[in-house]
């Protein structure tokens, strides 16, 4: 029976799968008994990759080459076989003929399987049907695949399996790799932009004694030697500001943050952010940085500042729209909060009239303004929009707006109805900062485990003097989602957080 005519693996048949597993293990045992154990091979040669051969065929035709990769398809035509080899760059066809590699080597080759990893030495040519290929003069087994790949005609469609076993997803769905190659280029683009603008990349602690820099629920761990509870960082903000105090005028960190909160298509407990701080500028300077970084990343990933996301064209060409939170709520929710500024009762009545269930009687004017925005405005913000001037109550680390002290110089960037970035004119008044963190601590004592903690060392740093500073935090995962047209954050994380499968769930999957 030819490899091409083998029936696809029935993943629902444990008996069928066990038989295939045993056959492959028997083949490995036979190789080992013959002294040909592929797992003893320590290195291989790659003079060319698949994409290079295709792109440079005119100059490489009839050139000798050595390639290496995984067998993905096999067409058995007796004494001549065609196999498709996939390497890191793509697919290339290989023509394997008994007369070229020898009868003994050909007999051994015919016992190999789809999924095996091989090295092929030969020359580059074009078949009579016009396909660029490698004509094998020698072929060597480098690694034995003991598990059969999913049926190539149906691929790997189960998203749960794809996320849990990303290695299989990458093997059988080559287009998935493109998402992660683009992710790498996006991150490189952001670093390049910041480096070229005289920012210094730094590293701050991931294990923190105080969870600060954002309003979020932290993960708690325990340090045995010190016998201390510690927190995985929710944001590097307070450490980066210490560096601004110390005279490092432009700093950034690109790395993982951790928040012990919900999981959905936009949220994962660990995620990647870039945070940057620049002395002697404000939130207007941060808007410019955000626009330029995103536009540069879009060009790097897609070749244009106009991208399509889930069927909608998004124009990322700077400058982006700017709209105050007050004006946004007035425009989209029909409430003029400025007309009853500071009147908590009137604000409460207005928001209740909108039918928002999350409203609480103890909310302040600023809390209610933000709630109305979240519930009635965010869903309207498709094209890039900076929402600016947030209430003081929800912005504990932000400088007040001089012309309106009940507001702060803060913005959030919204694209495709979701937040992409958060930025401030950073609060550098240590007295005001202490008062706001004390309020946060009081909220935490009342049961709000997302409220911020009082960080005395950070407050001491501010007392030495921090220059006027702009700060920006931007989510990398959501930016990659946008620029790769991915609907779920799990599609842009190689190994997203997953609920463990129970024994009963695994049994059900096999039945």
From TrEMBL:
Its cofactor is Mg(2+). Pfam families: tRNA-synt_2, tRNA_anti-codon. It is found in: Cytoplasm. It is an enzyme of class 6 (ligase). Keywords: Aminoacyl-tRNA synthetase, ATP-binding, Cytoplasm, Ligase, Magnesium, Metal-binding, Nucleotide-binding, Protein biosynthesis. Residues 183-500 form the Aminoacyl-transfer RNA synthetases class-II family profile domain. Transmembrane segments: none annotated. Its main location: cytoplasm. It comes from the Bacteria. PANTHER family: LYSINE--TRNA LIGASE, CHLOROPLASTIC_MITOCHONDRIAL, LYSYL-TRNA SYNTHETASE. Belongs to the class-II aminoacyl-tRNA synthetase family. Homodimer. This is Lysine--tRNA ligase. It comes from Solibaculum mannosilyticum.
């Amino acid at each position: 029976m030819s490899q091409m005519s083998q029936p696809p693996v029935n993943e629902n048949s444990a008996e069928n799968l066990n038989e295939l597993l045993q056959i492959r293990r028997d083949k490995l045992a036979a190789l080992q008994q013959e002294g040909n154990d592929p797992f003893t091979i320590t290195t291989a040669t790659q003079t060319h990759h698949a994409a290079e051969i295709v792109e440079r065929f005119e100059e490489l035709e009839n050139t000798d080459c050595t390639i290496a990769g995984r067998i993905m398809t096999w067409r058995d035509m007796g004494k001549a076989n065609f196999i498709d080899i996939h390497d890191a760059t793509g697919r290339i066809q290989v023509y394997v003929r008994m007369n070229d590699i020898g009868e003994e080597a050909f007999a051994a080759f015919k016992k190999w399987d789809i999924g095996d990893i091989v090295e092929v030495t030969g020359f580059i040519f074009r078949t009579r049907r016009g396909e660029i290929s490698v004509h094998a003069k020698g072929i060597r087994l480098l690694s034995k695949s003991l598990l059969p790949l999913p049926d190539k005609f149906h691929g790997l469609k189960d998203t749960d399996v794809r996320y849990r076993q990303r290695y299989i997803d990458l093997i059988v769905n080559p287009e998935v790799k493109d998402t992660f190659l683009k992710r790498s280029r996006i991150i490189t683009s952001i670093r390049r932009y910041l480096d070229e603008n005289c920012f210094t990349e730094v590293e701050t602690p991931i294990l923190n004694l105080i969870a600060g820099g954002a309003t979020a629920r932290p993960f708690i761990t325990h340090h045995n030697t010190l016998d201390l509870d510690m927190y995985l960082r929710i944001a590097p903000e307070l450490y980066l500001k210490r560096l601004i105090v110390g005279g490092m005028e432009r700093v950034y960190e690109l790395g993982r943050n951790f928040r012990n909160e919900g999981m959905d298509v936009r949220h994962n407990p660990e995620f990647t952010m870039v945070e940057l701080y620049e002395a002697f500028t404000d939130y207007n300077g941060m808007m410019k940085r955000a626009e330029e970084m995103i536009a540069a990343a879009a060009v790097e990933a897609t070749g244009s500042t106009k991208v399509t996301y889930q069927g909608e064209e998004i124009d990322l060409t700077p400058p982006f729209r700017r709209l105050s939170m007050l004006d946004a709520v007035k425009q989209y929710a029909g409430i003029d909060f400025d007309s009853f500024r500071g009147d908590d009762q009137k604000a409460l009545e207005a928001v209740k009239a909108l039918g928002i269930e999350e409203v609480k009687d103890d909310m302040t004017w600023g809390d209610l303004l933000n709630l109305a925005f979240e519930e009635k405005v965010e869903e309207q913000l498709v094209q890039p929009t900076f929402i600016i001037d947030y209430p003081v109550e929800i912005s504990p680390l932000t400088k007040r707006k001089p012309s309106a002290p009940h507001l702060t110089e803060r913005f959030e960037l919204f694209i495709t109805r979701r937040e992409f970035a958060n930025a401030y004119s950073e609060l550098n008044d240590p007295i005001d900062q202490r008062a706001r963190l004390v309020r946060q601590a009081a909220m935490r004592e009342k049961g709000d485990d997302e409220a911020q903690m009082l960080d005395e060392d950070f407050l001491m740093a501010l007392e030495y003097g921090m220059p006027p500073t702009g700060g920006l935090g931007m989510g990398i995962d959501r930016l990659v989602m946008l620029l790769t047209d991915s609907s779920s954050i799990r599609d842009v994380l190689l190994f997203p957080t997953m609920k463990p499968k129970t024994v009963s769930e695994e049994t059900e999957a096999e039945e």
